Fold these 2 entries.
Entry 1:
Amino acid sequence: MNKQSLICCVFFSISTIAGAVGFRLPNQDADSIARGNAFVATADNPSAIYHNPAGITQLEGRQFSLGLYNITTDVDYRGALGRAETSHAVQVVPQLHYVYSPVDSPFSYGLGVFAPFGLGIDYGDDNPFNTLAQKGSLAYVSVAPTIGYAFSDTFSIGASATVNYSEIEFHRALTSVADRFSFEGDDMDLGFNFGLLWKPHRQWSLGLNYKLETEMHYDGRSRARAVFSPDGSWVDTSASLVFPQNIDVGVSYRPSDKWNLEVNIDWTDWDAVDVTTLSGTALGDVAFPFNYKSSFMYEFGVTRYLDRGYYMSAGYIYSENSAPDSTFSPLNPDANLHLFSVGLGRRTESISWSLGYHFAYNSGREVTGNSAASLAGQTADGSYHVLNQALNASVSYRF
């Protein structure tokens, strides 16, 4: 196993994650998940490296946090050709953040390791649309050195340069379950995140986080087994995939020391994800049209602070669909999605912990007029239901 594969195995165990945010993974911390990810204007723990790097200037001394995002996702499909369900398993994605704010310095420094994108699903080999999709996974890890600067007690900026590594894998049948087309590849790229935090009044805080678009150029291999290539040999294959820019803005209101209410609007430029072509396969060039549409997530969160450092949170997200029916893929069953969350935590001088739980569902997406290419004439048309449950646990240590 090469070094990149080892990194990916350590930080990704994703094989069944699917949802309604394209292939983004915006769930990066227990506190933020519990608040419906309405956190960009609060950003008061080390995960600010992801949510708003300007927020690290609010932290004192050295702080380290470790989070574990535990998720299960079930997709149920029913169509004219039959029924399919995804495999059910609990997957664990780690999150690491470290922040250092020197005494009497306007600068703060941080380092984060997290998964801003990821996708994976497995319907089994013999499903009603197996010539469109059997299983696939997208693994993506970012290492983000970060710096923040506080111009005053009320205004800060922050930025991260990200080093990103990704692996992708895809399998589908060609004409029947007896043959298969497979592709796998990996690449690295660089990215950039920028954040602002402004507190015009002790009760109000405004935050902004911007993540730059990047693109992976996967160098890999593909195999068309049994039908088009009798020996099933692997051939060099390449493909590119855009990871879109997004902007998250939010307002936090604290009517008293006991309450924090926040509203965020999160926009992702999915229009940039157009067509991905696999070049050099035994089948020739194979195009995968996405033609995604830009979409919003509307995030609402509230935290109630209790005695002895305890606090409770709740949140809600409405996430818009970004995948049109014509290019819909069962590997990314995107839909309008409702997410509800709750959480509990405690902060002390040295050790803090938090738990965040959310579940997400769509009432059912009906796909019609799908034009995905299939040698067997299959279609992705049908009804898709998604149920997503996740528990994020995190612990922080201040020293």
Entry 2:
Amino acid sequence: MPVAAARTFPLLAALCALSVGTSAHAQQKNLRDYGVAIGVLQPGRLNAITDVPGVKVGQKTLVRGDDVRTGVTAILPYAGNVFQGKVPAAVYVGNGFGKLAGSTQVEELGNLETPIVLTNTLSVPTAADALIDYTLSLPGNAGVRSVNPVVGETNDGYLNDIRGRHVAKRDVLDAIGSATGGPVEQGSVGAGTGTVAFGFKGGIGTSSRRLPPSLGGYAVGVLVQTNFGGVLSVDGVPVGKALHKYYLSDRLGDSPDGSCMIVVATDAPLDARNLKRLAKRAMLGLGRTGGIASDGSGDYAIAFSTNTAVRVPYASDDPVQKTEVLRNDAMSPLFMAAIEATEEAIVNSLFHARDMTGADRHRVDALPVDEVLGIMRQHGYRISR
């Protein structure tokens, strides 16, 4: 039974979680809910990527038997036919050890024509095939003969039987079909089900920022799939060092490889060039958490704008686009929003994750939140419960 079913059957889902080796912690919270506010900008109402108008997220979590720990996370720029109304987009590569399908066309044309799907490394072809099916099936796409599916991944093979390729096209379509604009489930769910970050259980995390009205009032939302290493820092506090668990330490001397997928959404009217500049700043947020973009890590940021004024119609009688976009000198507040939201989203992925046992009896413990909060107190933070 997928962990996502906890919304409907909480007791049954909890028992199921125990049976597959995940611990039953109390309800997890965002870092901010404990009184630690990263950065200076305020989050949106949900503190999630879905604070950006139009953005929807759907997930499918696959937890079966002793060794299936994987899933799918789908991000929709808006609820309509994205192929017919393409959104400006850009990709920035922090370190390219990954399989980001569709990235070259986004780089060349500067737009996105499908939802973004995140999954595990060996399920990228399946997810791409499902995205093609989804796009061809939409009303108005009967004459479409080319689709650029965008699929990102991280390798969850430590906890998941990745060679079994358990993600099916139906799972991808279910994730897309379940997408909503409400709260986003975080932690060991969807594409983050089997991931590991900083030696702890990783997962899906999200956060957002909203600029003040004087700066346009635009929203920036970020969703991450964390599966990478380094020396964990929480709002500047060297948590990984204090816990004696970090790359090259005596307790965690293994590889920091893995990958981090970062999706940045905004309703600011940006073209692809400035969206690439925005995507670059997401890597600064990753660095602020202690990630090192190691040799074997695929660290990618995809940024897109949902502003209706900058959508690109599939077919138009007017080949000249006359859309007003933000100027370069308006970008700095958005840069800071992307950095802060990325940093907080990564930390939230750790705060929401649960202990997990998976393939080959490998076990990864969740971040010890109580210990982390104690370390934060020692550094002068006033923690609320």
